[in-house]
Amino acid sequence: MSSSALVEISDLHFAYDKRDVLKGINMAFPKGKLIAIMGLSGCGKTTLLRHVGGVLKPTKGHVKVDGQVIHELDQDGLYAMRRKMGMLFQFGALFTDMSVYDNVAFQMREHTDLPEELINDLVLMKLHAVGLRGTHDLMPSELSGGMARRVALARAVALDPMLIMYDEPFAGLDPISLTVVGELIRRLNDALGATSVVVTHDVQESLKIVDYVYFMANGVIVAEGTPDEIRASDRDFVHQFVHGEMDGPVPFHYPGKDFRQDLNLRA
Amino acid sequence: MSATGAIRNIGHRVINAVWRIGMASRFFVLTLVYSSSSFRRFHLVVKELFSTGVMSLIIIIVAGLFVGMVLGLQGYETLKRYGSESALGSLVALSLVRELGPVVAALLFASRAGSAMTAEIGLMKATEQISAMEMMAVNPIARIVAPRFWAGVISMPLLAALFSAVGVFGGYLVGVVQIGVDEGSFWSQMQAGVDFRDDILNGVIKSFVFGIVVTVIALFEGFDAPPTAEGVSGATTRTVVTSSLAILMLDFILTAIMFRGN
Questions:
Q1: How many domains does one find in chain A?
Q2: Which residue of B has its CA nearest to A95?
Q3: Which ipTM value was assigned to this complex?
Q4: Residue A74: which residues within 8 A CB-CB, separation 6 or more?
């Protein structure tokens, strides 16, 4: 694994109760790169992201971020590590009892002793970067889904994190918001010199912006490569996924009894 | 269901109840441990005082007034039989400061503020706001739970005191203004009959205890709610039911300790 990798995932196993969700994942996210983890719903991608954030502990293997094994950190160590991370949740997860401004200022007020004038400048700069400076005095309920996602993005990068994680950033967005959010993810990553991980099943949008893609299915990596390699892949699963075909290795029908048996017909 | 199945079911429910009490106790201790930031940044508590305390004022004042008026009417009718109408002031005040003030105010507080706290925290959990806070390295118990806890604990005795004060005024309106009990004896009997330490202070202690219990139940239920619409609605119902039963049971225990032999 590359020594310049910010995140190293080695032989990661995880089970909910007795159901194996991750079965030996190995990945490396090099510094400065934008990585996508794709796969069907329920394939373990969000679970993987939660291991990187230290929310879950692996049953075997480990995740190293900036040289430190995440699950071995105590609470103070984990919180110190999380201050260097930003995360965008699926539907933004903005604090609904605070204005847009207070949402973006939240971490600055919690973790720094910066004077309010400086916080004001920083918040407006972050909001300006996502094109929403004019919304600073609105409440989250007054924003559209795409705008809420962009405010959440401004909040995620409030403290200039070294690692930014995105959990389904494109879910439920209109085509314009989709392009805007995709473009912002790329631009913010490059402008901040950060490393970003995008967990998504939006193939077309993510292939446009990312540097490297991992495909997951049933808790293992089934394919990986650059966007061009993925587009050209002749592997059945990747082909079905990228082209959104109805039937293939992922079947249309949920497994069940023989149809004739269900209809009480004689064979 | 077979007998073994029924016994197993009862056992399962008992274990579950004990487990939840244990979890709630742990949650209470954690809330106390992480309370220091609430005092350092008291504006967070003040903000919650507004939504738990100030927003409960209307229901407390209106309910207090009517309870006092009913006490005035019922008390007068009963005392009249013994020719002791002049003791009406004492009866109204003692009923309110010892019992009805703390208990009814706490029941109203559980329904108004407790249910709102559970629903708010449950929805914060369902919309990943609590996970987001944890990912920002901010402890949700210190930032969300502790300020609400202290706001509940501070506002409950104040609301109960206000309930009693308005109730006394309601009793005065019915007893003195409407029925015509002598005003002088109404107030002087009250002054003579109500002891500061035995009656008022014990009432305040009761409402303080109810404040802790209702707020901890409401916050725990919200924090523990499954992150679904059904989960949050179930948790909100449990907050009102469990808090109400806890208030009534604790009221009996506290009354037995405080007023036995008086």
A1: 1
A2: B129
A3: 0.82
A4: none
